Amino acid sequence: MTGRARWLAAGTLLLLAAAAAPANAQRPQRRGLPRPTSDPKVFSEFNVPYDGHFTFVRLRYTPSRTGYGGGGGFFGGINYQWDHDYPRADEHFSKILAELTNIGVHPTGYNILSIGDPELFEYPVAYLVEAGWWTLSDAEVLNLRTYLQKGGFLIFDDFAGPAMGEFAGGIRRILPGSRLIRLTADHPIFHAFFDVDTLNFHHPYYGMESVFYGVFEDNDPSKRLLLIANYNNDIGESWEWSDTGFFPIEINNTAFKLGVNYIVYSMTH
User: Fold this and answer.
1) 146-155 pLDDT, tens per residue?
2) CATH number of 3-22+42-268
């Protein structure tokens, strides 16, 4: 992309982030859905069937009962779950991705799949939040391992502080012997569409320094990047509230730029 094209895209991003539409009228409003421990059919009935379009996929897991806060959450009793920021984050981001890129994004689709669902293999990228609360069965571990080995890409978001322990433990089960490698701003994933030249970010609520980790094939940074993890960060929160003025537009913009870069990179590498 030329410098002028990047500038125009950034300007379009400002406009879209400020005016992202409410939930699409053609789809049911999903804010009142039961919690993640409910019958998974309740969620799957909202999914759109695979038809060749790129569809944003959020992964659903069985949350632990105690989590990393000893029963009360990390900062005072909040019950973090896989559906944090859903559905507004998913819809707003899908809209941005469709408007700014040539990726054929599904016009109304953003799906939820279990991490053990074989249907996951129909989608090249999947997004998972609050990995400090995830639990993994042996079958789910195998499903995610095979997905990554066959070329899938995972985006982990919205986990902080001691949540790293549960997240890293899950990654070690999925990819035995793998290492989480801290990414720097010169990695191509941060320049796949937008140029994000600094990673000097902090968690929007807690203020901790954000760190971006990756896992590479054979732990070799010259080989394929299998996943990216936004630690001490929460780009989905900005996606969700991008039409409200809750966060400064610069923070929303950066969150969308990171998300678009992740998708474009994963679809081209």
Assistant:
1) 999 999 999 9
2) 3.40.50.12140
